[in-house]
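Design job #97: recover the sequence.
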């Protein structure tokens, strides 16, 4: 397998912090060669990158802490910025012809303003040749936006090619690339969040599930700061997805309001079980965990009603909220299913310069970032 000599720094921006990491291939495993997380002040769930010196400085600090020496960097764009659609083309059509057809019809396909420049990519997902046709240079386009390794459903007629199309406003890509450059880095990969999560799940989470088969369905529940990202995996493919509220920030605000304390102090209490008494557990934590589980139940019901499936086999909890006291235990009682707490870092070699305690504490929150970091190390890219 060919591995590029220069490592790439993977960057993730959340509503409260910037994380960076780098990986390298060690035989059949991966080594985490650097990791850093730097918090920043933000009063909303959205992030403005343009002319945001505080954020640029946070990234520079993260680079310094990580001791990363190279300049190449990768980043993902939120799924909310990405438009996806599937098409069927005649099997006789070549990749070039499909690309021309999509480019000519781009304004009819995407729901963006007609004045917006659009970057797009596509993949033929029922063709063993794995054709992928990115155009231009990576600073302007979603380079290699996705990979799909498995054949699609048998219902697709063999004389048709099933094409997965993804597009994004060019301005969104320019924004993240400009931000990275201000920190002194060279943006070489811009990818969609969904495919980073998919790759991180495949590489680092799926091997944790005992007795797993590729026909099994897994409900993937990422309890993040801004909400719950609910996905259904079949094998390594995401076949359903939906977002809900009830993220960790909501719990922080409830604690802050209930006890008239700052969000910083509320966050500390939320993460520190020794600070939580019986009253706190009964009045704050029990109702919150119940709301999270009801959101997941709603996601499952929506999935069942819109597909031919009627059950899932496993649930994987991810995100910072998955570490909340008794979350896993309550899920097991509520759903009567095998519940796994995602811990991707446990399967990775940690370089001696990486802070072990910090990295392990963030394990369930960095699945997408690991998926981004491992991208250039896989033989199928």
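Job complete. Output follows.
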């Amino acid at each position: 397998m060919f591995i590029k000599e220069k490592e790439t720094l993977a960057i993730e921006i959340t509503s409260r912090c910037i994380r960076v990491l780098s990986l390298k291939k060690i035989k059949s495993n991966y080594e985490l060669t650097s990791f850093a997380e730097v918090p920043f002040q933000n009063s909303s769930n959205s992030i403005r990158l343009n002319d945001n010196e505080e954020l640029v400085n946070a990234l520079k600090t993260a680079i310094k802490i990580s001791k990363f020496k190279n300049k190449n960097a990768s980043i993902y764009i939120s799924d909310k910025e990405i438009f996806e659609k599937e098409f069927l083309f005649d099997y006789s059509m070549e990749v070039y012809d499909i690309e021309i057809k999509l480019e000519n019809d781009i304004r009819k396909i995407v729901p963006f303003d007609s004045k917006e420049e659009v970057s797009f990519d596509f993949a033929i997902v029922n063709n063993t040749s794995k054709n992928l046709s990115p155009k231009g240079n990576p600073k302007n386009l979603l380079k290699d936006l996705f990979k799909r390794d498995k054949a699609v459903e048998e219902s697709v007629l063999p004389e048709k090619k099933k094409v997965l199309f993804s597009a994004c406003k060019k301005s969104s890509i320019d924004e993240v690339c400009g931000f990275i450059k201000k920190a002194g880095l060279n943006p070489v990969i811009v990818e969609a969040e969904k495919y980073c999560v998919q790759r991180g799940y495949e590489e680092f989470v799926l091997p944790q599930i005992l007795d797993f088969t590729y026909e099994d369905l897994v409900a993937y529940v990422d309890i993040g700061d801004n909400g719950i990202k609910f996905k259904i995996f079949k094998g390594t493919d995401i076949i359903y997805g939906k977002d809900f509220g009830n993220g960790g920030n909501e719990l922080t605000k409830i604690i802050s309001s209930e006890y008239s304390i700052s969000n910083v102090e509320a966050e500390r209490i939320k993460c520190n079980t020794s600070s939580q008494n019986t009253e706190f557990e009964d009045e704050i934590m029990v109702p919150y965990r119940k709301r999270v589980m009801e959101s997941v139940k709603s996601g499952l019901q929506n999935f069942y009603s819109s597909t031919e499936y009627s059950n899932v086999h496993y649930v994987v909890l991810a995100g910072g909220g998955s570490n909340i006291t008794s979350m896993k235990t309550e899920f097991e009682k509520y759903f009567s299913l095998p519940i796994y707490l995602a811990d991707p870092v446990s399967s990775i070699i940690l370089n001696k310069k990486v802070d072990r305690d910090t990295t392990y504490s963030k394990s369930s929150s960095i699945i997408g970032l690991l998926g981004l970091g491992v991208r250039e190390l896989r033989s199928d890219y």
